[in-house]
Design brief:
This protein has helices spanning 3-19, 27-57, 64-109, 247-258, 262-274, 282-293, 298-310, 318-330, 334-344, 349-371, and strands at 129-131, 134-136, 140-144, 149-158, 164-174, 180-191, 196-203, 210-218. It has 372 residues and is α+β, with helices and mostly antiparallel strands. Strands 1, 2, 3, 4 and 7 form a 5-stranded antiparallel β-sheet that branches. The protein has a 3-stranded antiparallel β-sheet with strand order 6-5-8. A hairpin with a 5-residue loop joins strand 5 and strand 6.
């Protein structure tokens, strides 16, 4: 679930409890409260996990105590993963309750649902992308001046006779120079036939200037094949890379990456993250970004931070996201500096302190490796 969605649910649940109303809560409100309670439990677990990790960082590597604390970290990580799965289930329950609430309101008023499209109604707006039975209508990258956030917004329509579950839409986000600065997405638990879903994919990078459609996914399946290919996307490129990795180039890039070339390692990491020239694999992306980042490649440090922030290929970890963004910021990367301010608001003082210590350790290790 995205941060602003979580914040909205939390605020709603707190307001309901503060009012002390004796009325019976609606199904949607009950689901929101259940999600809020689980979020509070997960927050407490994350704080415990951060404290144990901080303790482990201060211990000599390989010592009995270090190994013992490492096992404790592994158990807490497993518990966190189980909670994450439960969270997804409760989120789907909430989406379903909201859908039923809209349907009930529609039946009472004999009017179409606010966020849906009558299946008999023909839109005058043409879709910009059609993938199977899904249609994507014109989308924009908007800025919320009050919240200080950016998001890709638009509508997706299910034109089939069947409902789709776990539908997501993803976009590549580009800066003013056309460089890829990340990937964003939004998800809906159920998309009924004939319904238009108004999506909102939060964008974290302040340098984002425009968005380009990447793919649809249904029920966790790989990206659906495009009926009309999108325009080519230029990756975040180092001065030594003049184009995105192509299928015929990937093996050559991998050869250079395996020989320790930081720029090639960055390109391989980007290729795995975006499925360009190779099957997408977030874990492999993290692996190659890390190799390049440890050689002080600033864009790899930035992207590795994003992988930790979004939990792609790794367990979501604000401490490590902050640490790698801080290392990138030390290299003068403006996007990383902006990201630090954002993620800082999501962290406890203890997490922030740990992240800064870890950043200092990473920078010292990188300097030491560079001098050898």
């Amino acid at each position: 679930m995205r941060f602003w969605d979580t914040l909205l649910i939390s605020a709603t649940a707190l307001l309901l409890m503060a009012c002390g109303s004796t009325r019976v809560l609606t199904e949607v409100e009950l689901r929101e409260k259940a999600l809020f309670d689980l979020n509070a439990t997960m927050h407490a677990l994350n704080e415990e996990l951060d404290a144990v990790r901080s303790q482990q960082l201060l211990l000599p590597k390989g010592s009995p105590r270090y190994l013992s604390v490492g096992r404790e970290v592994a158990l807490l990580n497993e518990k966190s993963s189980n909670f994450a799965l439960e969270w997804e289930g409760k989120q789907m329950d909430l989406e379903e309750a909201r859908r039923k609430e809209v349907e009930a309101a529609t039946a009472v008023t004999n009017a179409p649902a606010i966020s849906s499209t009558d299946t008999k109604k023909k839109s005058t707006t043409e879709p910009v992308q059609t993938v199977g039975d899904l249609k994507l209508y014109p989308f924009t990258l908007t800025t919320d001046a009050d919240q200080g956030t950016k998001a890709v917004t638009g509508e997706v329509e299910n034109t089939s006779a069947n409902a789709f579950t776990d539908v997501s839409v993803a976009f590549n986000v580009l800066d003013s120079d056309g460089n890829n600065v990340g990937t964003v997405s939004d998800q809906i638990a159920t998309l009924e036939p004939g319904i238009r879903w108004a999506f909102k994919a939060l964008v974290l990078d302040n340098a984002a200037d425009k968005a380009e459609f990447l793919e649809f996914k249904i029920a966790g399946n790989p990206g659906l094949p495009l009926s009309t290919p999108p325009p080519p996307v230029t990756p975040p490129s180092d001065p030594m890379i003049d184009a995105e990795p192509q299928p015929l180039r990937f093996s050559a890039l991998m050869d250079k990456a395996e020989k320790g070339d930081a720029v090639a390692q960055f390109s391989v990491g980007w290729a795995y993250a975006n499925g360009k020239g190779v099957q997408a694999n977030d874990r492999e992306s993290v692996k190659w970004y890390r190799k390049s980042a440890e050689q002080n490649h600033a864009k790899s440090q930035l992207n590795l931070g994003f992988m930790y922030y979004n939990g792609k290929g790794v367990t979501r970890d604000f401490v490590l996201a902050y640490s790698w963004w801080d290392v990138a910021a030390s290299n003068g990367f403006s996007s990383a500096i902006a990201n630090l301010s954002f993620v800082e608001e999501l962290m406890t003082p203890e997490q922030l302190s740990t992240a800064k210590k870890l950043s200092n350790l990473l920078q010292a290790e990188i300097r030491q490796n560079s001098s050898q």
